[in-house]
């Protein structure tokens, strides 16, 4: 099987699902281009290749792949070595926790999009409960999800931890972690492939996203 000659990842600057794809591509040392779109003004060509109107879309020699989990699996299969465990059961478990992360990102998004205290508190509590469930399954030995080795599942959780760290540092919103989970977060956020997986002005872009959606978090942080 010959490798693709051109990969183009279509993105919104704020999207964590794009970011997980960027991390995986860079961790594997794969050459690709990154095209950022305005989510409020999507061009017709994008709507033609994204059936759900969402990013990321990976153009593989012009052929579109959509949904980040599918993109990650394709990249991992085509460009060795694999970032999944070799054992089939362990691999399936990692894939399941990838899906769980998508749910956590959804809870985080709902928390950020709420405009009232009751909805904010409900979404925050749901996110905290999810983090506690996650905390119970990570390997007891640092630094990564499964211990010493970096896997595809780590690519997936890095965007969540980056946003949680930003929420704590900038807006005073702290989601309590165990020492082990904090070590995992710290290890991921220290990686160059994670640091460079967002635009340079990401905190500003993130702040503008909150403002444009009239997020309750801003009024809570200002109180």
From TrEMBL:
<keyword id="KW-0808">Transferase</keyword>
<protein>
    <recommendedName>
        <fullName>glutathione transferase</fullName>
        <ecNumber>2.5.1.18</ecNumber>
    </recommendedName>
</protein>
<dbReference type="InterPro" id="IPR036249">
    <property type="entry name" value="Thioredoxin-like_sf"/>
</dbReference>
<dbReference type="Pfam" id="PF13410">
    <property type="entry name" value="GST_C_2"/>
</dbReference>
<dbReference type="GO" id="GO:0005737">
    <property type="term" value="C:cytoplasm"/>
</dbReference>
<dbReference type="InterPro" id="IPR045073">
    <property type="entry name" value="Omega/Tau-like"/>
</dbReference>
<feature type="domain" description="GST N-terminal">
    <location>
        <begin position="5"/>
        <end position="83"/>
    </location>
</feature>
<dbReference type="InterPro" id="IPR036282">
    <property type="entry name" value="Glutathione-S-Trfase_C_sf"/>
</dbReference>
<dbReference type="InterPro" id="IPR050983">
    <property type="entry name" value="GST_Omega/HSP26"/>
</dbReference>
<dbReference type="GO" id="GO:0004364">
    <property type="term" value="F:glutathione transferase activity"/>
</dbReference>
<dbReference type="InterPro" id="IPR040079">
    <property type="entry name" value="Glutathione_S-Trfase"/>
</dbReference>
<dbReference type="Pfam" id="PF13409">
    <property type="entry name" value="GST_N_2"/>
</dbReference>
<feature type="domain" description="GST C-terminal">
    <location>
        <begin position="87"/>
        <end position="217"/>
    </location>
</feature>
<dbReference type="InterPro" id="IPR004045">
    <property type="entry name" value="Glutathione_S-Trfase_N"/>
</dbReference>
<dbReference type="InterPro" id="IPR010987">
    <property type="entry name" value="Glutathione-S-Trfase_C-like"/>
</dbReference>
